[in-house]
Amino acid sequence: MKPRILAFAGSSRAGSYNKKLAAVAAGHGRALGADVTLIDLRDFPMPIYDGDDEARAGLPPAAIRFRALLNEHQALLVASPEHNGSVTALLKNALDWASRTADGIDGLALFRGKTVGLVAASLSPFGGVRAVAHLRGILSKMGANVLADEVLVAAAHHAFDEAGQLTNALSDKLTVQLMANLVASARWSDAS
Ligand SMILES: Cc1cc2nc3c(=O)[nH]c(=O)nc-3n(C[C@H](O)[C@H](O)[C@H](O)COP(=O)(O)O)c2cc1C
User: Fold this and answer.
1) What is the pTM of this model?
2) N or C: which end of the chain has fewer CB within 10 A?
């Protein structure tokens, strides 16, 4: 069976560089034999987490759909923008909602032991390094195994061609390597 990888970016923006980077990584993952589901968090609108709302109404429908996808995939590929030196509110909010216990399911179980690959694209010369460091900490705390590899794409407004491919050969090669490790890890977790 093909290993299943869920890929998404922490940006809802139509022209998001991180969506482009997630798409590049998804393409490499498919070429490496994985079944990659690429989703757009814009299609999963969730209000900012509020414990009173949760107590009253439970999880928002989009969080339930997001959790179902997490459950169906063995590994994750997350492309993280950097907002003021950290992850975006959109991404953290989706992770927070997904982590809750609902319908008898501990949301953290959807992350525990799951391998995650991290990539980032930002306008700055630093390529989102601070966001990735924070995201690594967040996902590790949630129990995921975050791959040591990471791909940081600086000056993202100059990094993609018209077809959405990375113009820098080394960045592209690093993305292939990261996806190869992610696919191998997902295969292994399927076999274990
Ligand atoms: C609120 C806000 C804060 C930002 N802070 C940073 C930052 O700390 N570091 C950085 O490299 N870029 C920062 N940027 C610029 C982003 O790199 C840029 O908006 C990028 O295009 C976001 O990713 P996206 O294209 O996937 O939406 C910030 C942008 C916004 C809107």
Assistant:
1) 0.97
2) C
